[in-house]
Amino acid sequence: MLTQTLIQQVVRAALAEDAPWGDLTVELTIPESLTLQTQLVAREPGVFAGGALVRETFEQTDSRIQVQDLVADGTPFAAGDTLAVISGPARGILTGERIALNFSQRMSGIATLTARFVQEVAHTRARIADTRKTTPGLRALEKHAVSVGGGSNHRFGLSDAIMVKDNHLAALGATDAESTTRALQGLRERAGHTTSIIVEVDRLDQVPAVLQAGVTGVLLDNFDTADLVRAVALIDGRAIAEASGGVALDTVRAIAETGVDVISVGQLTHGARALDLGLDAV
């Protein structure tokens, strides 16, 4: 969850990384009394995210800086649009410029890519979800960007839900249908009735054994569309049908049309390109 405390911590760490002993350039070239007015401008179209990080960056560099007309996260924009007006002491604005841009460019890139995926499947029942393939330390920011782009958040981390993958089953010695069902039933009993259990399968013949254990969801990993259709029919509403693995913009529509409930897409966070935004003096 993107809390104010986390925002402050992340911005503080970013500024400490960028200017651990101050900004030598502005201290030696920019008079302390100089003021500046700038605009955050889009160089290309997209969906905005990261406004709270922009505001907090300038608050920490100099609390006298004003951030005005900042568009809300989730706002679509066109190339040339002004997304915020930042004015005040020039030293603070110039010191915080790159950090504010890094956050807003990265998060807007994720929101924009997510919106494109969501649009591709809008005619189906499928939801687009993120994964744990995030930048270490920035997961809350990146998952927030997915949300404002119209996507859904998968589990935030390992503490949120149970997801049993092939290596978990291998470690338990679950090598056939009977042992797989038995292992998952034991897990179900230990987990309690409120905990979600999602189980990854990579073959169609694994689905019945997983369903027999009464799991919450079945993650269909790297299935082709024909097998996804068969798997959805086998699941028949008894669990959430989730498709994952190798999902791209040019394949997600066909995947969604198989009838799956969720499509998890690692590319949303680990493959998104930073959007081209700039801070221009006016």
Automatic annotation (TrEMBL):
InterPro entries: Aldolase_TIM, NadC, NadC/ModD, Nicotinate_pribotase-like_C, Quinolinate_PRibosylTase_N_sf, Quinolinate_PRibosylTrfase_C, Quinolinate_PRibosylTrfase_N
EC number(s) from the headed UniProt entry: 2.4.2.19
Lineage top rank: taxon: Bacteria
Record's catalysed reaction(s): nicotinate beta-D-ribonucleotide + CO2 + diphosphate = quinolinate + 5-phospho-alpha-D-ribose 1-diphosphate + 2 H(+)
Subunit structure: Hexamer formed by 3 homodimers.
Purpose: Involved in the catabolism of quinolinic acid (QA).
Name of this protein: Nicotinate-nucleotide pyrophosphorylase [carboxylating]
